TrEMBL record, chain A:
<protein>
    <submittedName>
        <fullName>Phosphate transport ATP-binding protein PstB</fullName>
    </submittedName>
</protein>
<dbReference type="GO" id="GO:0016887">
    <property type="term" value="F:ATP hydrolysis activity"/>
</dbReference>
<dbReference type="InterPro" id="IPR003439">
    <property type="entry name" value="ABC_transporter-like_ATP-bd"/>
</dbReference>
<dbReference type="InterPro" id="IPR027417">
    <property type="entry name" value="P-loop_NTPase"/>
</dbReference>
<keyword id="KW-1278">Translocase</keyword>
<dbReference type="InterPro" id="IPR017871">
    <property type="entry name" value="ABC_transporter-like_CS"/>
</dbReference>
<keyword id="KW-0547">Nucleotide-binding</keyword>
<dbReference type="GO" id="GO:0005315">
    <property type="term" value="F:phosphate transmembrane transporter activity"/>
</dbReference>
<keyword id="KW-0067">ATP-binding</keyword>
TrEMBL record, chain B:
<feature type="domain" description="ABC transmembrane type-1">
    <location>
        <begin position="89"/>
        <end position="295"/>
    </location>
</feature>
<feature type="transmembrane region" description="Helical">
    <location>
        <begin position="88"/>
        <end position="114"/>
    </location>
</feature>
<feature type="transmembrane region" description="Helical">
    <location>
        <begin position="277"/>
        <end position="298"/>
    </location>
</feature>
<feature type="region of interest" description="Disordered">
    <location>
        <begin position="1"/>
        <end position="25"/>
    </location>
</feature>
<keyword id="KW-1003">Cell membrane</keyword>
<dbReference type="GO" id="GO:0005315">
    <property type="term" value="F:phosphate transmembrane transporter activity"/>
</dbReference>
<dbReference type="InterPro" id="IPR051408">
    <property type="entry name" value="Phosphate_transprt_permease"/>
</dbReference>
<dbReference type="InterPro" id="IPR035906">
    <property type="entry name" value="MetI-like_sf"/>
</dbReference>
<protein>
    <recommendedName>
        <fullName>Phosphate transport system permease protein PstA</fullName>
    </recommendedName>
</protein>
Amino acid sequence: MSKRIDVSDLDIYYGDFKAVQGVTMAIEPRSVTALIGPSGCGKSTFLRTLNRMHEVIPGARVEGKAVMDGVDIYGSGVDPVEVRRQIGMVFQRPNPFPTMSIRENVLAGVKLNNRRMPKAAADELVEGSLRHANLWNEVKDRLDKPGSGLSGGQQQRLCIARAIAVSPQVLLMDEPCSALDPISTLAIEDLIHELKEDYTIVIVTHNMQQASRVSDRTGFFNLEATGQPGQLVEMDDTTTMFSAPSKKATEDYISGRFG
Amino acid sequence: MTAVTDRPVPAPDVAPNFTTSPSGRRRKRTNAIMATLVTLAFLIALVPLISLLTEVVIRGGSMLTWQFISTDMTGVFGDSPDGGVRHAILGTLQITGLATLISAPIGLFAAVYLVEYGHGRLAKTLTFFVDVMTGIPSIVAGLFAVALFAILIGPAYRSGVMGAIALSVLMIPVVVRSCEEMLKLVPNELREASYALGVPKYLTIIKVVLRTSLAGIVTSIVLAIARVIGETAPLLLTVGIVTSMNTSMLDGRVATLPVFAYSQYSQDALGVGADRAWGAALVLILIIMILNLVARFISSRFSIAEK
């Protein structure tokens, strides 16, 4: 059910400004791919191009190819809305819908799309998604309470439950733990381990220990100077990247000698 | 240990002195003066408000009887204390209601365009004209409606619709402006969360943006109603005044509370006319108050619950 994505020669622009240049990478199915690099190097921007969220910013555009299962998601005739149904996303700051209860938040992908679902099926989807996100036991007695009443870590797991409730092929995570405490972070990392059985996961993180803990492959983004576009410097198996990277820039960054 | 340095360093080891310095005394004095000034300004601002409210309640309160609310002015002549404002209440509700039906959707849709779609020249132009329209004198709105219907139907035509159009000209910019602010308050993260679930833009706007800001939108519209419900000049030009109820919005003059107050006062500024004017003013204020209470109730029903 999970899919691989082959990105080739992707350039990403904000208006006239080229933010990311010439990214070519393969994202393997049922694995976790981590993207690391200094702030402003374009890793989040790149992540957002994978489900066409980049283009909701006025003036933002993309050149190049990102092929999922033989279909270029930037091909003509491709509906970005359909792409986003297949490729879900979890954001840096937990963002449950404040007007909705916990249950409604999980069903948001169904309800916001005006799809009808029998109550029994909806109950099943809510429980399944929350269980899958390791949140069920904490919230099963208060499903009708607002999602904004949960703690930050719980809210983030609620957002993950909401994302997997629409059964996407791929899950993109943009620094999902940066606003969380270490215990919630651990809970999310455990969850990522379980989720990769079923999903292809791409995670952007500033935390290199996190990248080495959760990911199978790691890509290092860097930019040569401020104002220059970011580039994918190197990508390899995570163990190789953290023990014997082939580029000096990667080694410097990973070992803390950058600049 | 000579500190040859250009970076700020803490003072060398001296005993801390936390007693008030000369500059501290000046600060305290300034603080006292400014605190007195702003309190005084606040009290002065309250004077006209309180005096106005007591005046309306005292002078209008004596008129506020069931008879005053439930009769109109048919067959009331001279110094007769009979007669009431039923026709004017109905007219005010009709005309303001129709104006709201016209203005609320147009204003809200324009605000949605400005916040969710407009980024280019058109949006800037629209914002500019909305700002200009907010400042239009109300008499000009009345003249606009008169001129419009003179072209469409004929110069002698008078009806409630004309009044509603005139009020809409005043109301739309207010609705646009305040709804725009409400929609801007919806965090972008919620829109992105919705897009990322594969929800198309139009459903995101309806079910996330508008739903999240619903309480604010209701408040905006009620404030806009309160802004126009007391307008006199445009209604004087367009719907004038009559002595009895006119349930047709398409034909004939309609009485409204502000115009009723004006015409009664101008006919008999010392006698029963003035009393009726004060009574109508009180009824108008009560209507606005009820509207505000209803809006508060609706807002609290739809506002975002915390925990």
